[in-house]
Amino acid sequence: MKKLLCTLLALSMLLGLAACGGPAPAEGPSADPAPAVSTPAQPEDGSASFTDSVGRTVEVPAEITSVAVSGPLAQMVLFALCPDKLVGIADEWDASAEQYLATEYYNLPLLGQLYGGKGELNLETLLGSGAQVVIDVGEPKDTIVEDLDALQEQTGIPFVHISADMQSYPQAYRMLGDLLGMKTEAEALATYCEKIYSRTETIGSGAEKANVLYVTGDMGQNVIAKGSYHAEILDMLTNNLAQVDEPSSKGTGNEVSMEQILTWNPDVVIFAPESIYATVKDDAAWQSVTAIKNGAYYEVPFGPYNWMGFPPSVQRYLGMVWLSKLLYPDATADYDLFADVQEYYKLFYHCDITRAQYDALVANSIGK
After folding, report:
1. Distance separating alpha carbons of residues 176 and 233, to the nearest angstrom
2. Least CB-packed of 65, 216, 259, 338 within 10 Å?
3. What are phi and psi of 61, to 5 degrees?
4. Does residue 20 register a pLDDT over 80?
């Protein structure tokens, strides 16, 4: 964050010099002039006050037509609600997204992200994007108030935070609907989230839970531990065997030994995309695990994101739909998985998914 604020301060000084007619700093006579940076779009018809999830009251345009996102979680949440308002994306879409997203969405400019990730927030691109507001979604960092206040002061663009987890996404969407003047669209998304979460809770509480491990990594020796942020779906629907002293908050999970996996000896193993799913049956170290011996191992569907998370955003509702059907197909999860996946892709990706696309997504994920 210090590095980010230093960059902001430098940009602020550069804009101040330009406004006074002063020359742009140069390293020598042949240095190129600094690129022009436009100011954020300003409201033409007044402003409104909005109180975000961490209690900050922010002045925003009364009508918001251009939105920037702070990171990939916000990108996924806001793409579902207002794709035509987005001025850019925080993280490049996976290549698989091209078959689901309209071209104008797939080719949105890259802004970078506020916290961590593959690239820092590109302030020059942000300032030139015309964004009227920057929206952050997810778990609030300990320094979120100070961070957003500082960014807002330096850029002149309102920054707001909307807290969200799997249980509170309906509330988050309704807050976003109020902010963006899209209450009807937000309500459709909120209602879907409520329906899937409630059904998943019912399935999880009514079934005899399966003993499951969710593993990641090239060797399959990282686990998504019980009680971690990324394990929310697992913990709802399964007896998550991965109990460790300090559950990792990262999507890569906790590294464990093969001996520990053999001790847990799960009845079902869920492999993250791009792990060892394809070769595990021929791996001598895994052949004595009950799940592998019985063929009860599966790969998480992927497209355009991992359905179980990473990043842990709204696509995890797909994880709920899929994992419930996988583990409890008869007694409690008696719905049509294809129909539910179609509904999600229509609502959240604005895509009419075909049966062939669905079959490819779940090829390694339902039965053998």
Report:
1. 24
2. 259
3. -60, 145
4. no
